[in-house]
Amino acid sequence: xxxxxxLKLPTIAHIRAYSMGGAAAKVHGQGxxxxxxxGKDHWIDDHIATPMSKYEQYKQSRQSFGINVxxxxxxxxxxxxxxxxxxxxxxGNPGCYIVEHHLSRFVEGKRVDQxxxxxxxxxxxxLYYSGGGGVVINTxxxxxLALWDLYGKVLNLPVYKILGGAVxxxxxxxxxxxxxxxxxKMGFIGGKMPTHWGPAxxxxxxxxxxxxxxxxxxxxxxxxxxMFDCWMSQTVNYAAKLAHAAAxxxxxxxxxxxxxxQIESYRELKKxxxxxxxxxxxxxxxxxxxxxxxxxxxxxILQPDVGWCGGVTSLCEIAAVAKAHGQLVVPHGSSVYSHxxxxxxxxxxxxxxxxxxxxxxxxxxxxxxVLVGEPVPEGGIxxxxxxxxxxxxxxxxxxxxxxxxxxx
Length: 408
What we know:
By secondary structure, this protein is an alpha/beta fold. Helices cover 33% and strands 16% of the residues. It starts with 11 loop residues before the first strand and ends in a 12-residue tail after the last strand.
């Protein structure tokens, strides 16, 4: 049935891609979509355990092995009526090339509501070089998010209302950072800390991380959640020993112990976990099939990053996979891009806020300085009312040092 003339939707006239930061940029340490691109003396780059920690020269700093080389990707889409939408992710210059010289053909000329069609075409046309994740999926995610932002702005509705509406009035957050004790005072329901040691450090590494956990438990009391983020750095044996050592201190969950494709490692760890402790992962998984495998392996909470898993379109599918197995989906911190989705999910009772202030002692918008109007939790909560603006409810800070390295 044809739409009434007054309801006809515009088409997408232009798509443009910009980068900020990363290896190719003149300005570094700005944060933004690549929130690892921070300045010196930041908790997020302070001796955090990684798969590269076994090499002494890359142990102290994740930036030393290039965690911030990509930089921020900004995708802007413009409709035929002049309305614009945009989004950000982590893909920088390489993402700009993919958008301008490949994905643009699937976007321009489509109606603003044809998001799922564009999404399917982007995924299938890049299979031969995407590898099922990484910078290509990050880029597709960014385009998808920009399309949802545009669609919401054309309809003058927030994205969460287009997705079916809120199932709760508020989103409660836990905080990820170096200071759960300070997060507790800010009203968060829990605090997730990075592990700083790994298998190369053997039992001494476990003892050091447990000492930190014990100290933090003493500071926050018994009821405040504490969690470990292991950032793909462990072996099954090490992870199991760490989990059991942490159990007396009521660790709520242990996160991302292994790289995303080590499904059997997750399956084995699940058998070895202390009773009551949760096993979580997913931020670096880039495909629906990957999340299906993690779900089947017994992961208790799936944690996709909406900017790295295929966008809101994919996130909704992943939430359905988790729901079918009685599991939770709690996205990796993605600010407004996950807020608008999770407030519509019945299996997301809480969400993550990533502390991007250097010492995790104050509230800074996660993607600062790129987004204008980016909300932060107040007393550990964001309300549906705070999200009640067209699209994702934010604007692009055009005073940032954005570059458009390619044009089509």
